[in-house]
Amino acid sequence: MSAVIFFIAAIGAIAGAIGVVALRNPFYSVLALVGHLLALAALFLLLRAEFVAAAQVVVYAGAVMVLYLFVVSYVGGGARPLTPGGSSLRAVAGFAMLALFAELAIAVLGSGLKAISGDGAPYVSGFGSPAAIGEALLTKFLFPFEVASLLLLVAAVGAVVLARRRGGTTLEDEIRDSAHWITPRSLFSGTMAEAVGAIRPPAEQEPGQAATDETELGRPVATPAGRDEEVGW
Amino acid sequence: MAIDWYLVVSALIFCIGAGGVLVRRNPLVILLCLELMLNAANLALIAFARMHGNSDGQIFALIVLVVAACEVTVGLGLIVAIFRRRLPVDVDELRELQG
After folding, report:
1. Are B13 and A13 in contact (CB < 8 Å)?
2. Distance between CA B75 and CA A155 in Å, rounded?
3. How confident is the model at residue A223 (pLDDT cuts 50, 70, 90)?
4. Taking a contact as any Cβ pair under 8 Å apart, which residues of chain B between 14 and 53 contact chain A?
5. Which ipTM value was assigned to this complex?
6. Distance of alpha carbon A85 from alpha carbon B76, whole angstroms
7. CA angle, A103 then A30 then A78, to 5°
8. In this structure, which CATH number among 3.10.310.20, 2.140.10.30, 1.20.120.1200, 3.50.50.60 belongs to the domain A1-78?
9. Would the CB atoms of B70 and A52 count as touching at under 8 Å?
């Protein structure tokens, strides 16, 4: 029975991994990774690591990947035609990774280590339970535990510093000034600006004169300039 | 299942992740492939913890989870900053870290 679940979970994990690498849309890649993480949590359960499996699902698949989805939705990801060097790099990388996997498999399976051919040490009740993990974290591994929390703090502060807007510089992808809150109207459609004479319909203007003056209301809404950066495959 | 099955699966996931880091150009997907490699290492750690009957490997895997979360946070912040400055979000184009 455990063999069946092992194969289902392992095939799910490998399929998720291949999906991450091969899918073009980065959104789908993130979803493939979420599937991979869930399959990996099933493998952890088979290996009697219940707490780590739960932490993986809740923290990794549940929080980190959702953060990833937000950022992928914000940044986006267009498909870009591959550069001429693309396909040869793919062939070389594929061959190199195949060679690496063959070497690792030979090292693992042909190593002559007896212990890995078995099912592992006899199961002690409470192995992998939250109580065992908590006791180890607070006695034997107290220092790594504290350093890990410090690392989380540093990462959070770093992310806020990296992604903040510098005060005073308007970045064109965030049009937040009040001129753009006003619903855009077509020019000379009978707005108040026309009524008070702030802008004039073109029939009354001399050919050389600009169609609008400084007031914002008649000006066509500024589109975000050139959002044409594309992301690679 | 014997432990070496889990180790072979871990090696396979690691190689797929490494291949993805080499091949993909979108830095978001490169970070995802890095996560794949970290997960492969986690699987190996948990497998060896089961083999020894010692939960040290599971603690190690939890710390690796924390490190992966931090790295994703900072990496995504970097990518958002790159995107906000309207640079191409493409590792082949981003050769210098300034500007």
Report:
1. yes
2. 10
3. very low
4. 14-20, 22-26, 28-29, 32-33, 35-36, 39, 42-43, 46-47, 49-53
5. 0.92
6. 27
7. 105
8. 1.20.120.1200
9. no
